[in-house]
Amino acid sequence: MDWMPTNRSLSSRLDLNRATHATEFVPRVLSSSASVSPNFLSYPPISGAPLHPITKKLEDADISSHVTPESTSPPLINSSPLINSSPILHDKLNTTPTLPAYHENVGGTTYFYQYPTENVPPPEAVAPTPSPSTSISSEYNVFTGKSEPSYFLSSDLRNDILNRNMLTLLQADPTQFPDLPAEVDSYHELFPVEAMPSAGGLHKPHMGYQASMYKATHIKTGIHYCLRRIHGFRLSNTKCMAFVELWKKLSHSNIVQLKEVFTTKAFGDNSMIFVYDYHPGCETLLSRHFSPDQSGYSDPFINDTSTPRPYSYQKNNLLRHTQNNKLPEPLIWNYIIQLTSALRVIHSSALACRSLDPTKIIINSRNRLRLSCLGVMDVVMHETNSTINHVTLIQHYQQEDLTSLGKLVLALACKSTVAVQRENMSTALDLVGRTYTPDLRNLIMYLLASQQRRSVTDLMPMIGARFYTQLDLLHQHADSLDDELSKEVQNGRLFRLMVKLSMINERPDFNMESTWSETGDRYMLKLFRDYVFHQVNEDGNPWLDMAHVVQCLNKLDVGTPEKISLISRDEQSVLVVSYAELKHCLEQSFGELANSSMLHHDLSGTTIVPE
Ligand SMILES: Nc1ncnc2c1ncn2[C@@H]1O[C@H](COP(=O)(O)OP(=O)(O)OP(=O)(O)O)[C@@H](O)[C@H]1O
Known about the structure:
Blueprint: H1 16-20, H2 53-60, H3 79-84, E1 100-106, E2 109-114, H4 155-169, E3 183-184, E4 187-192, E5 211-218, E6 224-230, H5 241-249, E7 258-264, E8 271-277, E9 283-284, H6 285-289, H7 311-325, H8 329-348, E10 361-363, E11 369-371, H9 376-384, H10 394-414, H11 425-435, H12 438-448, H13 459-463, H14 466-504, H15 520-533, H16 546-558, E12 563-567, E13 574-578, H17 579-595
Antiparallel strand pairs: 1-2, 3-4, 4-5, 5-6, 6-8, 7-8, 9-10, 10-11, 12-13
Helix pairs in contact: 7-11, 8-10, 10-11, 10-12, 14-17, 15-17, 16-17
The chain binds adenosine-5'-triphosphate.
């Protein structure tokens, strides 16, 4: 993916002449290495690497190659007198730049002085002055940040992450949910995941019990979980907890991980709580594909009894409806692969799902399915039928899982939950045969043949090469996420660099020294900050060039030998320094801060070390 911005030249847009009349300081690019593409991934030229011709020209000129600023610089009181007696390399007000010709080391800081005018070398030997004659032609464009490719996460992915973040951080309004307990065992900040039934009503019972779902935060870890509460449930027999332990150990990308199960009276009754991983932004398979709330959705198998029609009419109607509204077959196979993948690990762990139902399968925006109610049936049904040996019945339950899977696929293929009712089954299978490939119909037929012993592994040959398609799609998706992540890795690296810079720049005082951030190494970093962030164009308007910022910060991070001219705010002096020297200043100054700080955060781990 080529997401680098196009090359551009800053110097082509900076007007020195105008600046000489400006009342405010206008930081400028005097070394025009800006044509190097800013790139998070490939770094600016470092020693040995071929240089851009303009940069090379600058390298060839004998400019400040020995600058090694140290933190023991003599204190610089304020900008004007300071600049006049400090590393003056270039009288900014002169359109002809003067060169640094000799230098002197005072307390570890090298100061540069001008040669008398007669010794000034010809202008072409120095850093190119950004005048119209030396500016780079306008074939280079500034990266505006508006067009793709981008330095940042794609907006789809970003919005998805932000949305999930927002859902995760939702807090319940106590006036709206006065009955919510403040704490339930190790969890607090409960928030109902589904709309509470109105007027104190309850959700329809599931397995004979009312159930509610809440998002909650673990008190100690701050991790968010989903609590499934079974109302009015008293656990009299702990045998079923053996199942809970098995479920807790089961981890798979298509199941919602069970974390723990406990009883509580926090809700004012005896409730059983199943704690699961929280997957924000998911909906149930029922609401995704079978919800009457969706515009245009109607279950084709629900007859309009008010106007009885002949059977042939109804069948044709069904066929037409299914043809027009059918789910794409690859999507159905995608679901089959995910569900059978989950069932495979469940069954091979001597467990059974027992709740393969469109309300108990959650789905995210990228069609990832997860079985969401695992373990509940094992506990609840154990309590209801305590005389039955559930362990011996596992194989029977596994067969029931496969029948449920057959019904689910049939319902998806007909886009109807009523299609799986016994009286509709043969019509539904007929419709599937006419609408989809024979493979899909055969798979459903196999799963629904409950008189024979079936196994989830037998489904593999029926899925066949579709498995490879799915695998390929997943790998492609993983690759694209990897690309997006690599951008953020680079952003994180630059962010840490900016944190360091910001902690130094404009610091009001340090070690009782009120001018610390304005003197010595820190003064150069201050001018560098202006150079990076406060550029203006020839009209004096802000020059908001992201590519310039990225490029400068990358060069600072690497510490390239390339030199730049930093101009004081009063425009009286110019310092020519290399990025290597600036990097040294930054590390030295930040080191001083870090040494006297109580807290040491890891702001160093991201620096790229050039090969
Ligand atoms: N682990 C989870 N993380 C995030 N949301 C979940 C999780 N499990 C379920 N949900 C969401 O919680 C809501 C309620 O789930 P539930 O299983 O109770 O479905 P339901 O349709 O209300 O079923 P029932 O009719 O049996 O109550 C659904 O919107 C579902 O998407």
